[in-house]
Structure formats: structure tokens, C-alpha cells
Write a structure and sequence with these properties.
Residues 1-22, 736-776 are annotated as: Disordered. The protein has 776 residues and is mainly α. Helix content is 72%, strand content 0%.
């Protein structure tokens, strides 16, 4: 105690600490309150559980009472049937009374012996009939008990045994009243059995074994058609439940859901066909019903695929349609071995949907190619496809290259969605649509070229062109892009389609009984390439036409290549001219072609074929225009025109000069030579009618050829002498006005190096390519 007091003196702050006893008291009271509260809650829970159990027992007792009432009702029905049987016995007694009346009548007639015999026979018949009736009543009572106890299999076996013992029960002939009554009662029992069996088959939880027992029971009852109908309904219900469970997941699998639906439907068709054969045999009636049921399910499949598909214009919809056709046709091939020919029906049902998806996808492709979708879709191409087009792109001119990349991207996207069997059945249709899409793409490019369009067929393309190709480099890049797509990239994209079609052709595969139109699967590769070439020719010809027209006509609409230049010639004779040259417009033509060739050498590097085709067509377009221009010939053929030999010589020299340009550049000149010859013949005829003798006024053809070749060399080297310098000065003025549309091009003919002219082409160095033209 002393020590405690000393500690309290040393630590006076300890007086404020709560004693442990007080803490124990406080928390002990709180714990007791919590325990009491929990006990009360547990008691309440106990009461609730007891009430629940009491309610359950009450309801169960009510259920038992209801079951007992049902049993009592069935017993009452049995008693009623017994009463009916008793009435039947009464009828038999009445028949016995008739026999006794006959006996009395016979006795009154004096034939007592016969009456006694008849009476004895009636008594025997009554005894036999009564015994049979008792057996039948016992049998019916037994069947009623089995039905009441739901012992269906035993009831069926009993009825089957009774009918085997008494075949007359299955007959339709009329017997005695007792037999008719028994047949009626037996038929009623069989009807009750049928209803119970059908009710079991309609239960959602019925299994395969239970269903087979139901069907076997119906067959034993002689209800084969009803059994088969129940069989098909049951399998159809199982299929419907499987489809309903899967339809909720369709949005998660937009590209493959159709294949899953196809697998569900055709797997069930195959299973149903096998089970039908095992249970019902090869009865043609049942086989026909299987075919009808399968056709109905396939029609339902086609409808479900369309209803649950993504938007028809998307690539996902095309993929879904493709995998559906692929999976379904594969299943149809398997079902062929089971005697079901469903390929024809399948394609008839799916063809409209597939063609609708193709049509909308190609419409979307057109919008993507023409950049009318606002650039929502990302364009990603592998280097294999992007590299050939990227060579035409510059820092400022990428619009048409992007357009070409979009074209290849969208066509490649469509082709990648196609499966083998879709290509086999719809490949020709798809190739035709691709060619049509390329033609629309070319129409778009034609609109982008400067100059008025003279092609009336382009009125369908109503979309505005956001960009114009104005310079030589832009126009050549546009042409190079189109040619590269048609000749290099597009064949690579569609090679998969051609491979499948060629393999099927070599293998001699017959397509679904030839139900599809011929255009769907038969396309000649040459015809298809000819369509692409026709589109390219249209683009090339428009470029050449507007290019030549911009060279021939000034901005004011005046022609630089009119017949007047052959009436105003200086001198009397070109033959004695020390340095004869073509007329200034043809010198300018040479310079413009040379300048274009220099630009093409950079833009179309490594594509000499395209360069030759374009330059050849340009030269050809000039002479074609000159041949058909009525205003030009109107000047020369007018009666008042002051024609002189020098004018005829100059015209012929210009034509030979044009032909030599083509020969010098190494591209085809046969068509140019033919048109030039026609122009020369017409000019000679015009001059001859005015009294000018061609024989005396014109030198030999060799002179014109050599002079034209010499003029080309002089123009390339820059010429010499004062006269030539004067011509060059005049030509430079024309060059600045007409043909200077590219910063990379030389400003005058004299500054162009020989090695850069016409992509360094020479007749002896270049083989003439095969050149086809629709106008030649």
C-alpha cells in the first residue's frame, strides 16, 4: 500500500485513467444486449420457418386430397363402364328371351323335338356368349386400370396381344352388337392411349429414349402416319429451341453466325433422316415427308440468315453470306448419299440474297472509290499493292493515287470475303461487277482531266470531281495509275477467282444442276480483259483528244492548224529551199510530244509500254483530227483558194514528218501512215482540180522521207543558219503560249538533250509492241 501511494505521488496523471472494472462492466452490458437481440432474431426466424413448413404441409395435404379425388373419379368412370357392360348383358338376356319365344312357337306348331334342339342350342350360345362377354369386360377393366395408373407400355402390349388373338378386331366388317360394342370400347381406349403418348412427346424435357418409346407405341397401335408426324414435330421443336438459343448470340458473330445456323439446320436434317430410316424404314410416303420437312427448314434457314445479317452493304454481310453458301453446300453434298438432293433448292433460296449483298457491296465500293464516304474507312494496303501506285505520288499530287489505292483496297476486300463455292457459283457475276466498277472509276478519272468531255456516256456520273489534273505530270500520273491497276494490280487481286473457275473447268464440275444463269459462272478471261482494255482506251482517247485540242486551238478558240497555213507559204518551191522544215504547228507538235515524253520518262519510269501507247495515240489523234476536220478542208477545197505547189509540198512534208515522228520514237506507225496517206491523196486531188500537176510539182517520196528525218535531227540539235534561228524564235513563242504546262519541261526545242527525247527511243533499239485499237 505504501508503494502504491508512492507511485500515485510520482504519477499524478494516472488518476484520469478509467478503471478496468468499469470497462468490463460497460462492455459486458453491451455484449449481453447484442446476444439478446440475436436471440430474438433467431426466434423470429424459427417462427417463420415453422410457418413455411406448416404452409408446405398444408399445400401438400391438399395436393394429396386432389390426387385421391382424381383416383376416385377414375374409379367412378370404371364403374360407369361396368354399368355399360351390364346393359350389354341385359341385351344378351333379351336375345335369350327371343329364343324361348321361338321355342314356344315351335311347340305350338307340333315340332317339339326341333324346339328342344333349338332351345338347347340357344342355351349353349348363351353360355358361350356370356363367358366371352365376361372375358371382354375383364380385359377392358384391366385396360382402364392400366390407363389410370399411366402404365402405357403394359396397356399397349395388352391391346396388341388381344388384337393378335382376335384378328377380327382389326377388320372393318360389322359383327354382332356385342362385338361392335367391344370394338367401340377398345377404340376408345386406344384413342386415350394415343392422346397420352402425344402429350408425352410434346413435353420440352422429353428425351430421345422416351420419344422412341412413344413412337414405338404409336406404331403398335397402328398409327404409323401419326407417329411419323409426331417424330418430325419433335425433331423440329428441338431444332427450333437450338436456333432460338443461338439467335441471341448472332450479333457477337456477324461473319460466322450463318455457318453456325447452317450447321444446326443441316445436322438436324441429317439426324432426322437417319432416325426416320431406322424407325420407319424406306417407306416412300415417309421419305417424301422427310424431303418436304427438310425443304421447309431450309426455307426457314434462308429467312433467318437474312433477318439476322449485318447491314447488306458491309463486308461482314458478304462474308456471312459466303460462309453460309459454303457450309450449306458442303452439307448438301453429304446429304446426297442419304438420298436428299437439296443443292438446287438451297441455291434458289440463297441466290437473291447473295446477289443483293453483292450489289450493295459494290455500291459501297463505288462510294469508297470516288471518296464520297468522307474517309470513314481506313485504307491499308500491303507493299505488294501499294508500292506500284506510290511511284505516281508526289508531295502535292496524291489525290488520284489515293483514289487508285481505294479502288484496289475495296476490290481486294470484297474478293477476300468470298469462299470457294461462292466463287464457283457466282464468280462470273463478281468479275463482271468488278469490270463495271473499274469503268465507273475510269469515268471519274475522265471527269478529272481538263477540257470538255465529249463522251455522252459520262452523264451518269453526277458526282462532282473535287480535283482536276491540269499539268502534264498530274495527267500522266492519273493515266499511269489507271494502267497499273488494270494491267498489274487488278489481275493479282482477282487471280484467286480465276484460279477457282479454271480448276473447276478443268475438273469438269457441274454446278447444282445448272440452275444459275450462265453469266454467274462462265466468263471468258479474254472478254473480261477486253472490258478493262475498253475502259482504258476510253480514258486514253479522252486524254489524247483534249491534249491535241488544247494544242490545236488557242484559248480564244482560234485554230493554229488551219488550211490557211498552206496558202500563205513563202517561196515557190520547197525543193530548192536550202533548209526545208515542217510548218510551225508540226514543229510545235514535235516539241510538245518531246516535252511530254520527257515528263513521262520521270512519271512513268519503267513503264515504257504505257509511254509508247500514249505518244502513239497522240500522234494518231492529230492526223485523225486533220483528216476529219471539215473547216480545214473547206479552206483548201474552196474554189477561190489561191493554191500553189509549195503549199502541197508543205502539206505532204508535214504528213511525212508526222509519220517519221512515230517511227523515230519506236511506236506503231501503221495506222498513222494510212491516215497520212489518205490526207495526202485528198490534198493531191484538191490541188489537181485547180490545175496543179502533181507529177511536175512533187519530188519523189524519198525526198520527203529524208527531209522529214533531217528535220527531226535539226530540231533535236537546235538547227543552224539565220533562217533556222528565225524559225526557232517563232517556235519558242508558240511553245511558251501553248505547250509550257510543266515546270520540269524544257522551254525550247534546242535545250532538249537527244538522250531524253521520247524516252531515248530508237527504231533499231525498240521492238514495236503489239498495239490494238478499236478505231484501227
Amino acid at each position: 500500500m505504501v508503494e502504491s501511494s508512492e507511485e500515485e505521488d510520482d504519477f499524478p496523471s494516472m488518476e484520469s485513467v478509467t478503471p478496468q472494472s468499469k470497462i468490463d462492466t460497460i462492455y459486458q452490458s453491451k455484449t449481453e444486449k447484442g446476444i439478446r437481440k440475436i436471440c430474438f432474431e433467431l426466434l423470429d426466424l424459427k417462427d417463420a420457418v415453422e410457418n413455411l413448413c406448416s404452409n408446405t404441409l398444408t399445400k401438400y395435404s391438399a395436393f394429396l386430397r386432389l390426387s385421391d379425388e382424381v383416383v376416385e373419379t377414375k374409379h367412378e368412370l370404371n364403374e360407369l363402364q361396368k354399368h355399360i357392360s351390364a346393359q350389354g348383358i341385359l341385351v344378351q338376356d333379351l336375345m335369350g328371351g327371343v329364343c324361348r319365344e321361338l321355342e314356344e312357337w315351335s311347340r305350338t306348331g307340333g315340332d317339339i323335338q326341333e324346339v328342344q334342339d333349338s332351345l338347347q342350342a340357344c342355351e349353349i350360345n348363351d353360355m358361350v356368349s356370356t363367358e366371352v362377354e365376361d372375358q371382354r369386360m375383364q380385359f377392358l377393366d384391366h385396360i382402364d386400370v392400366l390407363l389410370a395408373e399411366h402404365k402405357i407400355e403394359e396397356a399397349i402390349e395388352a391391346i396388341d396381344a388381344e388384337e393378335r388373338s382376335h384378328p377380327e378386331l382389326k377388320g372393318s366388317g360389322e359383327g354382332s352388337a356385342a362385338e361392335s360394342s367391344f370394338k367401340s370400347a377398345l377404340l376408345k381406349s386406344k384413342t386415350m392411349l394415343e392422346n397420352q403418348l402425344i402429350e408425352i412427346s410434346q413435353q420440352p424435357s422429353v428425351g430421345i429414349l422416351e420419344l422412341k418409346k412413344v413412337l414405338s407405341g404409336l406404331l403398335k397401335l397402328g398409327k404409323g402416319p401419326l407417329a411419323h408426324q409426331t417424330f418430325l414435330k419433335s425433331y423440329g421443336s428441338r431444332l427450333q429451341r437450338s436456333i432460338e438459343d443461338f439467335l441471341a448470340l448472332c450479333p457477337c458473330y456477324p461473319e460466322t453466325y450463318s455457318a453456325t445456323l447452317s450447321n444446326l439446320v443441316f445436322s438436324m436434317i441429317s439426324l432426322t433422316t437417319k432416325e426416320s430410316g431406322l424407325m420407319f424404314g424406306d417407306n416412300p410416303v415417309y421419305s417424301n415427308r422427310i424431303v418436304q420437312w427438310a425443304e421447309w427448314e431450309i426455307e426457314s434457314l434462308a429467312r433467318l440468315v437474312k433477318e439476322n445479317a449485318p447491314s447488306s452493304e458491309t463486308a461482314s454481310a458478304l462474308r456471312a453470306a459466303s460462309v453460309c453458301v459454303q457450309a450449306s453446300l458442303n452439307h448438301c453434298s453429304t446429304l446426297n448419299s442419304q438420298g436428299l438432293q437439296l443443292s438446287k433448292l438451297l441455291l434458289v433460296l440463297l441466290q437473291p440474297y447473295v446477289e443483293e449483298v453483292l450489289e450493295l457491296n459494290f455500291r459501297r465500293a463505288r462510294r469508297v472509290v470516288l471518296d464520297l464516304v468522307g474517309g470513314d474507312e481506313s485504307i491499308t494496303l500491303s507493299p505488294r499493292f501499294a508500292s506500284p501506285l506510290s511511284t505516281f505520288a508526289t508531295s502535292s499530287d496524291t489525290m488520284f493515287v489515293d483514289c487508285g489505292m481505294r479502288f484496289i483496297f475495296v476490290v481486294k476486300e470484297i474478293v477476300e470475303q468470298l469462299t470457294h463455292l461462292v466463287i464457283l457459283h457466282f464468280g462470273g457475276n463478281i468479275l463482271t461487277r468488278i469490270a463495271q466498277l473499274f469503268d465507273k472509276y475510269v469515268d471519274f478519272l475522265i471527269k478529272a482531266l481538263t477540257g470538255p468531255s465529249e463522251d455522252d456516256n459520262l452523264t451518269e456520273l453526277k458526282e462532282p470531281v473535287p480535283y482536276k489534273a491540269e499539268t502534264d505530270s498530274q495527267q500522266l500520273a492519273l493515266l499511269g495509275t489507271a494502267f497499273t491497276i488494270a494491267e498489274e494490280l487488278l489481275p493479282m487481286v482477282v487471280s484467286r477467282i480465276w484460279n477457282v473457275l479454271n480448276e473447276s473447268k478443268e475438273a469438269g464440275i457441274v454446278l447444282a444442276d445448272n440452275i444459275l444463269p450462265a453469266g454467274n459462272n462462265s466468263v471468258d478471261p479474254k472478254d473480261w480483259r477486253r472490258q478493262l482494255q475498253h475502259s482504258l482506251d476510253k480514258l486514253r482517247d479522252h486524254f489524247c483528244r483534249q491534249y491535241v485540242l488544247s494544242f490545236i486551238y488557242s484559248r480564244d478558240g482560234e485554230t493554229r492548224l488551219g488550211g490557211q497555213i498552206y496558202l500563205d507559204g513563202k517561196g515557190e518551191d520547197l525543193i530548192w529551199d536550202s533548209d526545208p522544215l515542217p510548218s510551225l504547228p508540226f514543229q510545235a507538235l514535235f516539241g510538245k510530244l518531246q516535252q511530254l515524253a520527257a515528263v513521262a520518262g520521270d512519271i512513268l519510269l519503267g513503264r515504257e509500254k504505257i509511254q509508247k501507247v500514249l505518244l502513239a495515240r497522240l500522234t494518231e489523234t492529230v492526223v485523225m483530227w486533220l483528216s476529219d476536220e471539215q473547216e480545214f478542208w473547206g479552206v483548201l477545197e474552196h474554189d477561190s483558194a489561191p493554191l500553189r505547189p509549195v503549199g502541197l509540198q508543205q502539206l505532204i512534208l508535214d504528213m511525212h514528218f508526222t509519220v517519221e515522228i512515230a517511227r523515230f520514237a519506236g511506236y506503231p506507225s501503221r495506222h498513222v501512215h494510212k491516215i497520212a496517206s489518205d490526207i495526202i491523196a485528198r490534198a493531191i486531188k484538191a490541188f489537181s482540180t485547180r490545175g496543179i500537176d502533181p507529177q511536175s510539182a512533187l519530188p519523189e517520196d524519198e525526198w520527203f522521207v529524208e527531209t522529214a528525218k533531217g528535220a527531226i535531227n535539226k530540231l533535236l540539235m537546235g538547227g543552224s543558219g539565220s533562217d533556222t534561228s528565225e524559225i526557232d524564235d517563232e517556235h519558242i513563242i508558240m511553245d511558251d503560249e501553248v505547250i509550257s504546262d510543266s515546270d520540269d519541261s524544257p522551254s525550247s526545242l534546242s535545250t532538249v538533250d537527244t538522250d531524253e527525247s521520247f524516252a531515248s527511243a530508237r527504231m533499231e533499239e525498240l521492238d514495236s509492241p503489239v498495239y490494238t485499237d478499236s478505231e484501227s
